[in-house]
Amino acid sequence: MDVTLTAIIEIGSMGIRLHIAEVNLNGGWQVLDRAVRPVSLGRDVFTSGVLSRESMLECLSVLHNYRELLSGWSIEDKNIHLIATSALRAARNRDVFIDRVKQETGFSLIIIEGIEENRLMYLAVRFALKQDLPLFWRANSMIIEIGGGSTEIMLLRRGQMVAAHSLKMGTIIIDQHSRHGFGPGIFYERYLNESIRNTLGMLNMEMDFAHVRTVVAAGADVRLTAERVGKELNENCRIIEREDFIKFVEKLRNFSIEDCIRQFGISYADAEGLIPGLLVLKLFLERTGAAKVAVPQVTIRDGYLIDLASGVDKSLQDEFFTQIIASAVNLGRKYHFDDAHARNVANNCMTIFDALLKEHGMNRRHRIILETAAILHDIGTYIKTSGHQKHSQYIVANSEIFGLHQDEIGIIANVVSCHRGDPPSQSDLEFMSLQREERVLVLKMASILRVADALDRGHTQQIKNITVERRLETVVLHVDKVYDLSLELMGIEEKGGMFQDVFGYKVILS
Fold first, then answer.
1. β-strand partners of 5
2. Eight-class DSSP state of 77
3. Among 419, 424, 376, which Cα is nearest to 400's?
4. Helix (H) or strand (E) holding 461
């Protein structure tokens, strides 16, 4: 069995953590060693917006120590993955820090976006729960992780992703606000209740929290709680009864940081965030209908290892693509999109895409990006029908879609902007800001989307099935029945020009 020694180093808001693991080609993995060093990067960033010189030096010192440790394991640089989360995402001088890390330690640092952090945590949760918590897959569920600089939330309806959000509400930020209030005991409750009420106003548009039946909570704070008042579900997950969790938090709420250190034997950095993190989770839990809290004994580092181990696992990829589309559909519903039209256009896009693989040269990941764009192309009509492609672009560019990176969302935003009206030009700043390869992708995807949209110009879905025939100079779209195609022919005449310009084939509807 081929086994690769791999290291995952995570720079978080309150510490730098290391996993050393064996990853094999069959999709298995095993953690061999762990290390953690407290470094309060978040305190710098969330106060001043930048990493201080002292924090940089402290961080570099830890990374030098990890470099020596890894050399003892003989792990190749290509198998060392250095990632960072919310603290460095928010730091204005992060690019300087990334360069210093590379120059002084040889590590290449990757900043993980909030939505990517959600994806990795979903992988870890999926692994930990297995099929041992059937209610998670059958009913409405929430996955929540409260970190130092952000709170990651995923909402699922019967196992299908409804929404994923990275909220700027972490334990360090909460603690800082409390210092400007009237004392932790009073201010925590006021500040947290107001923050969570505002957050729920947004989230309830996507799923009624009162109907959430399963809460899955990740993070060191809730893992500590699960060790004391929870019971084992399996070797990777513990369960806490709702009332037991609430009683435990009520008992802790008046503890000082020193009390937490003495009581639980944790570091000062962990003790600082313990009570704020548990209070946030308690307030979310009390607004749900969940009777239990599931606590997976996993982290984002485990998610990263699972991602490396799964590689090109087709079943896992297909599940993720399904979750991406489910997230896109629920974003569309939030803005009252025409569901039937969007799905019809998406289906026709996929038919054209699959029939012309040789001509467009795009891959499976590009296919899901195009399908997402087709689902969301008319979302801007929520704001105004006239010029709605620009409104669609704005909504998509400022939304989070589970499983997609920010640069992929940028491509989708540009594709929906091009689905009607004039093709993009050099005066289009959003389009021109893309890399050349991304601009080419946008043109290819938008060309296919315009044709598929023209096939349902009347939003009646009369053309449900098409076959695609490529001839010498034309692409012929054959419909399955005899229809009055006057509107669709007009649409092809208006929108088919971009397809001909990009691919060199004239589109004919037969």
1. 22
2. G
3. 376
4. none
Residue of 449, 477, 255, 247 lying closest to 362 (CA atoms): 449
Q: What is the mean pLDDT of residues 452-472?
A: 91
- Residue 164 in tokens: 């994923």
Rounded to whole angstroms, the Cα distance separating 20 from 30 reads: 9
Q: How far apart are CA 50 and CA 82, in angstroms?
A: 20
Structural tokens at position 467: 């076959």
Task: Write out pLDDT tens, residues 388-423.
Answer: 999 999 999 999 999 898 899 999 999 999 999 888
Does residue 182 carry a pLDDT above 50?
A: no
- Burial (Cβ within 10 Å: 0-12, 13-18, ≥19) of residue 76: exposed
Residue 168 CB partners (closer than 8 Å, separation 6+): 149, 150
Q: Hey, what are 331's tokens?
A: 């974003």
pLDDT of residue 411: 96
319 band by pLDDT with thresholds 50, 70 and 90: confident
Instruction: Order across the sheet with 151-157: list the strands.
Output: 160-167, 151-157, 140-146, 214-218, 292-296, 237-241, 231-234
Instruction: Please write the tens of the pLDDT for every residue from 231-247.
Output: 999 999 999 999 999 99
- What's the rounded Cα separation, in Å, for the pair 445 and 434? 15
**Spatial distance between the Cα atoms of 319 and 323, rounded to a whole number of angstroms:** 6
Say how many C-beta atoms besides its own lie within 10 A of residue 274's C-beta: 23
Backbone angles phi, psi at 28, to 5 degrees: -90, 160
Distance separating alpha carbons of residues 83 and 66, to the nearest angstrom: 14
The torsion defined by the Cα of 104, 108, 112 and 118, in degrees rounded to 10, comes to -120
pLDDT at 14: 86
Looking only at the bridges linking them, the beta strands covering 3-11 and 15-24 are: antiparallel
Phi/psi of residue 21, each to 5°? -145, 160
CB 187 within 8 A of CB 112: no
Per-residue pLDDT, 317: 78
Instruction: Note the pTM of the prediction, 2 decimals.
Output: 0.83
* pLDDT attached to residue 334: 92
Separation between Cα atoms, residue 345 and residue 339, nearest integer Å:
10
User: What SS3 class is residue 510?
Assistant: coil
Structure tokens at 357: 């693989």
Total residue count of the chain as it appears in this document: 510
